[in-house]
Predict the structure.
Amino acid sequence: MKTEKISSKKFVVLALLVFCFFFSAGSTHAAGDRLNYRLKWLFNASVAGDLYADVHGIFKSEGIAVTVKAGGPERDAIKELELGHAQFGVASADQVIRARDKGAPVVVIAQLFQINPLQWIYRSAAMSVDSLQDLRGKTLGITYGGNDETIMRTLLAKGGITEDDVNLFSVRYDYTPFYQNKVDLWPVYRNSQGIFISQKLQDAGEDVGFLIPSKFGVKFVANSVVTSERMLQENPDLVKRFLNALLLAWEEAMNPDNEQKTITTIAEFDKDSSPELIEQQLSITRMLIKPRKDLVIGTIDAAAWKQTEAIMLKQGQITAPVAIENFLKPGGQP
Amino acid sequence: MLHRRVYQFLIIYCLGILFLLLLKYSLGLSNYVIPSPLNLRTTFSEVVSRYFSDVLDTLSVAIIGQFLSIFVAFLIGILARKTTWFGSFVKVAAYNFQAYPIVALAPIIFILLGDGFLSRLLIAAMICYFPLLLSVLGIMSEPIEDIEHFYRTTGRMRWQLAIKIRAFENLNKLTTVISGSATLAMAGTIVAEFIAANTGIGYSIRIALYQSDLSKILVALFLIGITLSVYQGILEWAGIVAKKAWAAS
């Protein structure tokens, strides 16, 4: 009898805990006004501005406390926004469009990468990609289900190239097939893997080139800052302050005059990369985030977003148009 | 036994889905976070045949991997059953090997064997052999005194006979462990496919994860669960048949 009572009590406590978990989710504010900002990937040079804002007190100067959280393959900022575990996050356009297609109340308040870092590396002595027709007969690495598959299929369609004209090779994290010359073009993030693969090949006396999809008119949007519709409606001032701080930090981090400061900031979090490597990553990240001096970081390229949506619709990745332009809120305008 | 396993799985699966739906509707979550029943139904009809063939592909590798691991576990268990230096050496080697996380070893395996059948098989066997080994070691190093004493005093005891006696007397335990290890073999194969393969349900799950498509993952889990329940039911049934046949002979 006593055991039964204890068990019932335990059950009630457990039920209360589950109940509290349910109802803690979905709030637009974290406890004590501490905001959670979920990145898309691990801490490295591609999140330089996010780390800079945190370390150099730029969020604090706007009167907000922000916990910057590393992302990763198993993290999804949009889901965390809905569950209330994060108030801001970074997601790629395909994630946002897919989420909107399924009714997720997510909005885009800034676009960080103006050029998608996802590109293809190749040995420039063996080939060059001056036109899409140069892809004919080549073995092209793609990650089935990944962004690169979508982008490559779009490039092929744009060039009027069918799957029979090329060999598609399923890519893994192991680059051996590329090193062994079994694959002609290998997908890489230009500002991370792109650097060390180039380095290895250059050490072996081989020069490399990159296939940049945007040069052929395929502008598939990458990392952008997102929040929930509710956050934007209920706390527009907070969204603005967050965005002001974040974009200011990105401008400072991308400013070549602050290079050393930015490298030191990144190195605090990315212990596995040498300062020399971080410097190279930073230099390429700068090119992708701020390709022109006059471009304001965070600018949303609405045409590129519409193109991304059109590509996904054409490839059956979304069931119907989502009118993504309605959910682009530059500067956090409600 | 077979149908009991299947309906027990169905109860667990349905409870899991109900919990997710409760969460979805109580928090007002979108279909992106948790799919609606309609989403699930649509996805099910779209992918069920492809996923089922993927599950069978994975299961076939898992079965071969499991039999390989049974063989290895028995081999090591028999070699290591004695408290000799060699027995203890084999035990230490087997235990240490298990201490390395498979995800850390996987890249080496893929570099050596590529991302095809052999890698999947090896990883499946590596994941499921250890619990088998522990059971086999426990069983093989524990004498059945009542029976073995007779053969020892009459001078007819040989190591093969000792193994037969211990295996027969613990057949229920062995059947349970072998049946349970099927789950690990399946999990091992899925892990291998998830990390690096171009076929199997693990590969399909990876693609679904890339696309944040929980409904596809739920369909995959359903098919994995139901197939595994049937396979485990068959293993248990085979254990009973084997015991009856052995007892009769």
